[in-house]
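Key result, reporting period 2: structure in, sequence out.
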């Protein structure tokens, strides 16, 4: 007889969501993770009173899976919201501010008449956005055959609107700047930005998995348990062997590929985030700042302009992210001086968070969903089985749980 109904390997969003669904159905579940806290790639460290997420991460209130996981109640997360839009440092040296007219109607005229993009390009962007919003997500999920670059070209979006806005804005979200990501995923990302609000919990992004973990039955989550091997009905850790009727591997893609030989896993994209403490915040606006000149910084934001809890009282915290591994911090600081238009020589460098395997690549041709049931009582979950996002991780966890329930007879 199996010692447990289900063993979930990995306490990231996918594993926690799978455990949540299963335990609510009365299934005996154990979640194993080698770390000292739940969350996987989502974590928040406190350094000298500053809350530092491991890489720049935000959540979007339009994610259906997020609301489902929290029963539609996001209030306990104490969300702190960013302004919808972006401030872009143009090649002309000016800072151009673009606001979502649906959220800030008072800024619609200023956005429409700003000189960074031709008026006709803005009209085509609005038209493409309208088509994206009008397309049901199920239909959008079928548009996997072309890349984002091909999608924009087909929509007549090329030249300045791509180089000065779409590429800078999307690169930090997708983890790549060549726009090779599937147009289906890019459309879903754009839809979420148009409909939702970007935010962080007041306690840092780590509050998201922490609240999911805290809601599990006592004894479900077992931390500090590194899994060394998995086979049908059996999980090995460094010091014990556990048996179960079903096993869900909900780790990062690289670890999943190691534990499940033969599993197709995607390439992983690297992101690096630099945290600085300026004597005075370079802006009071909770607005993402971008660089139309194509410098190394993908995006930068004054986190404390949205969430004052991220720093001790009266202090500011700036988060700046670039694609790939870390570079010389002084180069980053020089770029930030240009983007914000203020001196940065006296900014204190608090931490560099280099995430070598931050996001799964999602190239054109890949389906939005991959199988979660592998046979022989083995299942897999994670953002590599759906979209590379919190939405994808949560959906994959629910799908894996439902597949387990079906295999165990409901």
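The corresponding designed sequence is given below.
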């Amino acid at each position: 007889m199996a010692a447990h109904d289900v063993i979930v390997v990995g306490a990231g969003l996918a594993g926690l969501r799978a455990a949540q669904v299963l335990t609510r159905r009365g299934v005996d579940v154990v979640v194993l993770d080698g770390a000292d806290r739940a969350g996987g790639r989502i974590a928040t460290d406190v350094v000298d009173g500053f809350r530092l997420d491991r890489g720049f991460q935000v959540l979007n209130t339009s994610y259906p899976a997020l609301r489902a996981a929290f029963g539609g109640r996001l209030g306990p997360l104490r969300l702190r919201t960013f302004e919808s839009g972006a401030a872009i440092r143009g090649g002309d040296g000016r800072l151009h501010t673009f606001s979502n007219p649906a959220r800030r109607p008072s800024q619609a005229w200023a956005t429409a008449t700003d000189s960074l993009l031709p008026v006709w390009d803005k009209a085509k962007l609005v038209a493409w956005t309208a088509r994206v919003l009008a397309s049901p997500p199920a239909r959008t999920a079928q548009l996997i055959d072309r890349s984002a670059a091909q999608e924009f070209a087909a929509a007549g979006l090329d030249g300045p609107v791509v180089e000065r806005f779409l590429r800078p804005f999307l690169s930090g979200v997708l983890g790549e700047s060549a726009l090779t990501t599937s147009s289906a995923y890019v459309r879903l990302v754009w839809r979420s930005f148009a409909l939702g609000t970007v935010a962080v919990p007041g306690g840092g992004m780590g509050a998201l998995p922490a609240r999911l973990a805290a809601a599990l039955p006592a004894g479900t989550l077992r931390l500090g348990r590194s899994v060394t091997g998995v086979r049908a009905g059996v999980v090995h850790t460094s010091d014990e062997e556990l048996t179960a009727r079903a096993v869900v591997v909900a780790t990062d893609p690289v670890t999943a590929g190691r534990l499940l030989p033969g599993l197709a896993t995607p390439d992983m994209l690297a992101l690096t985030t630099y945290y600085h403490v300026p004597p005075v915040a370079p802006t009071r606006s909770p607005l993402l700042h971008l660089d139309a000149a194509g410098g190394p910084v993908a995006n930068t934001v004054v986190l404390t302009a949205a969430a004052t809890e991220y720093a001790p009282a009266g202090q500011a915290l700036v988060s700046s992210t670039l694609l790939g591994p870390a570079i010389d911090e002084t180069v980053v600081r020089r770029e930030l001086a240009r983007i914000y238009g203020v001196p940065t020589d006296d900014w204190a460098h608090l931490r560099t968070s280099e995430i070598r395997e931050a996001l799964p690549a999602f190239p054109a041709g890949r389906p939005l969903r991959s199988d979660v049931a592998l046979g022989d009582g083995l299942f897999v979950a994670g953002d590599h089985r759906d979209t590379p996002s919190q939405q994808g991780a949560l959906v994959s966890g629910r799908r894996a749980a439902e597949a387990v329930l079906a295999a165990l007879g409901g």
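Residues 390-407 form the longest helix (18 residues). The first strand starts at residue 4 and ends at 9. This case is discussed further under Risks and Mitigation.
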